[in-house]
Amino acid sequence: MLVLCVLFALIGAASNATGTVLQRKATLAVPAKDALKPQLMMDLVRQPVWLLGICGVVGAALFQALALVMGPLALAQPVFILELPFALLIALPVLHRTLPKSGWISVGCMVAGLVLALASAAPDGGTDQAPMARWIPAVAVCAAAVVLAVGAARHRPAGAARAVLLGSAAAVANALTAALMKSSANAFSASGFGAFLTAWQTYGFALCGVAAVFLLENALQAGSIAASQPALTLGDATVSLLLGILVYAEHIRTQWWIVPELAGVALIIAGTLHLSRSVPLTGELGS
């Protein structure tokens, strides 16, 4: 089951990365004045490349749901860290570029760090459903974080800083979407389509997912993938891990295991930051 969880998460990460690259290309044709406005989505929906990107996102959501049914949130979501190297590697052929040697080293660091961190943490346990006493504070804190990040982004011009803030907001929304999706998917798996339709989490993850897509589109419009994707990738994994532990009561190993876990996290962060800086995504996919 855990192997399938990781496999589905990997496929979901690759699908989401493809969608991100296509959406970034579409956002470059959108006027800057439409940022953080509903008109942005109206402009994008008329572009075939954006619709293809959304297909990638939908495919990612389906594989993500399968991963969340097969294993804990704290295991499935961190695998989406690999979305960053997937996105950059997919973007490179579009730009007719090659990845420098340092970029491959960064990818290796991310993969090695992820394997080390997850093998050391060994996320397991947890419940299929969580009580409202856990959901209410989790949703409230996530919503507040998104509002604060968007508020800060509104006062900054287009560029890396704005892309990072909006990418961070999208990351929190993505993580909450995954947490809600896990509950709905488990309801569907255990009791069928009727239980899926009557679960409040189903409508919660749909609403949260739409918000996450809107925030991502604005992050991609504000700056390059290299600016927004690290915040999105690392933020999603971090918030998802916390939600898995605090909402679903999932467990990770502690005591001396914290040392290799932190070493893995350090490799992931170093690889992510270096990779985002070592690949010059200018032109139609950059800023």
In short:
Helix content is 77%, strand content 1%.
SSE topology sketch:
Blueprint: H1 2-27, H2 38-45, H3 48-70, H4 73-76, H5 83-95, H6 101-121, E1 124-125, H7 132-154, H8 160-191, H9 193-198, H10 200-222, H11 225-246, E2 250-251, H12 258-278
Antiparallel strand pairs: 1-2
Helix pairs in contact: 1-3, 1-5, 1-10, 3-8, 5-11, 6-12, 7-8, 8-10, 8-11, 11-12
- Helical proportion, percent range: over 70%
Low-pLDDT residue spans: 281-287
Average of pLDDT: 84
- Structural Rg: 18 Å
Number of strands: 2
Structural class: mainly alpha
Number of helices: 12
Distance between the termini: 42 Å
Please state roughly what percent of the residues sit in beta strands, choosing from under 5%, 5-15%, 15-25%, 25-35%, 35-45% or over 45%: under 5%
How are the strands of the biggest sheet laid out side by side? 1-2
Tell me about the largest β-sheet: 2 strands, antiparallel
What's the order of the H and E elements? HHHHHHEHHHHHEH
Backbone shape: globular
